[in-house]
Please model this.
Amino acid sequence: MDRSRLLTALALAFTLLAVILSLLNISLGRGSRTFVSPAESFINSGRAGVAFIEIKGVIGDGGGPGGADQIVASLDAAEKDAAVRAVLLSINSPGGSVGATKKIYDRIMRLRKSRPVVAIITDVAASGGYYVASAADKVYAYAGSLVGSIGVIAIHPNVGPFLDRYGIQIETIKAGRFKDSSYPFRNMTEEERAMHQRALDQAYDQFIVDVAEGRRQSQATVRSWAEGRIFSGTQARAEQMIDDLGGEDRALQAIREALKSDEELPVLRPRREFWDEFWSSSPWGSRVDHGSAAMQSALQSPMLYLYPGGLGFSLELSGATRALER
Model:
């Protein structure tokens, strides 16, 4: 066999071997396994560990990345997986819509009745991001993490002066006295503003009640934080908004303490769909499109648990401003 044929045969053999190994690697974690170790092999397949669930970006409704339904599904899977001894939440979120945030909070509160749930705040857990974090048994953050911004916000833009400038008139035909109260073509009346304020106040009160329950604090203590103020991780620890400073190592230590075990538990990641996992296990890697469906869903909500300094909010608002300028 000449040299070129030998090289071709070796290349084909390598490719076939890579495919076989990828399929074998996937098969180890499939079946009933929802969470698997990235380094799982025949030796440690099925070993118990800590499920890692990421909550990242603006929280919206739906099943896409960052969507509440997907996060809740991961929490459901963690509870059903016998190999999951505890759950580690990694939170980096400025918050999101009221309904989606509440959905995740309630599911975490239910999950922590059956196994330890510990949260790590990385860059930011503000507004709805903190709401979700407060449901964990323990919360840790870095010294420079951004924590807090407890409150509810609704935005009512008034483009009336802009329309007047260009001679554009909007005629509204409605049935129901308050039906157009949220439309951006005029200022609200005092009666309409009071109506919207009542809804925001109720959502704010629910925020206080839930954080107090999650953090095992009095509502009076939570209200002392809950003025929309933001805190560094160091300040948040002093205010007892978090349990301590630290990252993944500190969180895993807290999990071992809760389990009363010195066993080194591996961190298990959610198993991806077959073809995503196949390509990531192959020599060619993979590409994942995270999209922005959750952010778009959240920002369509009339009321938000969202830190106004959040990146997603800022980008969306600046995009709307540029559209008006054009």
About this structure: Residues 3-29 form the longest helix (27 residues). The longest strand covers residues 84-93. The two ends are 68 Å apart (CA to CA). Residues 275-291, 315-326 have pLDDT under 50 and may be disordered.
